[in-house]
Amino acid sequence: MITQTTDPSPALPQTIWYMGVKTRVLDNFLDQVLQDNVPRGGTVLDLFSGTGVVSAYCSQHFRTLSNDSQLYSKVLASAFIEHDPSNKGPFLDSLNFEEDLKSAFEANQDQLHSLFGPELEKEKTCLEAFSWEREKGRRLGLSADIEAIEVYRKFLSENRVLYGHSADRSQNSELKSAWELVGEKSLDTYRSQVHQTPAVLVTAYYAHIYFSLKQAIAIDSLRHAISKLETTEDPVLKRKAQHYLACLLHVASVSTSGTSHFAQPRHLNKDSEIRSLAKRRSLDILEGFLETSSNLKNYLRSIELQTGNRSFRGDYRSLIEDAPSGPRYKAEAQSDLVYMDPPYTSDNYSRFYHVLEVLAEYDYPKLQRDKQGKVLRGRYPQIEQRFQSGFCSTGKVEQEFTYALSAAARSGATSVISYSYPTGLLLKLYSKKQQDPLEEFKKLCGQFYKEVELHKRSMMHSGQGDRNLAIDEILLVGKGSRK
Q1: Distance CA 149, CA 141 (A)
Q2: What is the pTM of this model?
Q3: In which domain, by residue range, is 139 found?
Q4: Which one of 5, 68, 197, 280 has the minimum C-beta count within 10 Å?
Q5: Mean pLDDT on 47-55
Q6: How do beta strands 63-68 and 466-481 pair?
Q7: pLDDT tens for each residue of 16-33
């Protein structure tokens, strides 16, 4: 039974756009299950933290441990939860773009603007031709945008690919230095010396793909400035880098001219797609970054965090040791409750959010190519560099749940699992075997727990091309370890 509470928490700010984000299920659903099952002063382990919103919520009520296989997720969680209450205020007061980032940001941006000046001017002309740019909201005739669409489509058809350009294009004297900078030979040098300047990764890989050229240059320049804080020995500057990088991840996420993720860039054949591209690419990266930083600071000032919060980055199995009696959590990951929100389809999230992971790592990875040697449209890092979860494998998903539940139960922790019905991969497998999927799921949990509860909330799902798909978000709760 989910009880009610009269202790509202401050509204959680958006961290990144994300499929399956748990903001919608926290209010009077997941939050109540957590409150009912974690003792006062207890610890929660958020095992697959994703956007970090559940960790952010928990950190106000419980000691919170956050984990995810992706670096961008760890950065988000760290920026939200890893603050010592005794020095949170002074730290937030010390965050200052002008002092911390501006000089390095402008130096990198100026270099790239100088190299790509002619193309930036063409792009600016294209984007300013759209009605919302010319008149800032005044309705014009449709023909005005139709002409702008055709001009921008032609520009993108000729210029959308920088990395991987043809050899003859590099002979363009006007942009020869720019093309050489983002060519394969140059990028090989960057891979061995990632901190050389100008920082150009996003410009080379994703300009005219997921961002405008101007946006890509701004993202590169902010990331360069943040990296200068990361590489110092000063722990306060390193903490600042986490804050700023979390803000950059947010603004990159909401500025993508894909959809709400990075699985594929938009095609150029539909007018509606071009219009959507242009509108998103008119967003100002620096303005969004500064606004996000201010919002995050204000949010953190408004809450009281528990002490001892910590974020990890790795496969969840890295937090588990195989003791003689069976798997159990390592000392640093011990908790009263393990919250599990694993992937629920066969699609690995490392494909949908690869741009954010590359931005966090910023190591100029080699990109996946097709059989003809052409870089794939999605601009994914090579498959060997992308995390592949067993929860996305039909042959492994039940084994993964068994292992995770066994480790939590043997460690004396309550388990809470978020999953989607009927679309969850494990539940679909049970259905194919002519079994009641929810009863089988409960039986699996019951192997390790004496008491199993199932809570449901009906929702409309939208993601990966699905629109308005009715699903149930389920919470499976296991209490009282059998082992």
Answers
A1: 13
A2: 0.91
A3: 97-300
A4: 5
A5: 93
A6: unpaired
A7: 655 555 667 888 899 999
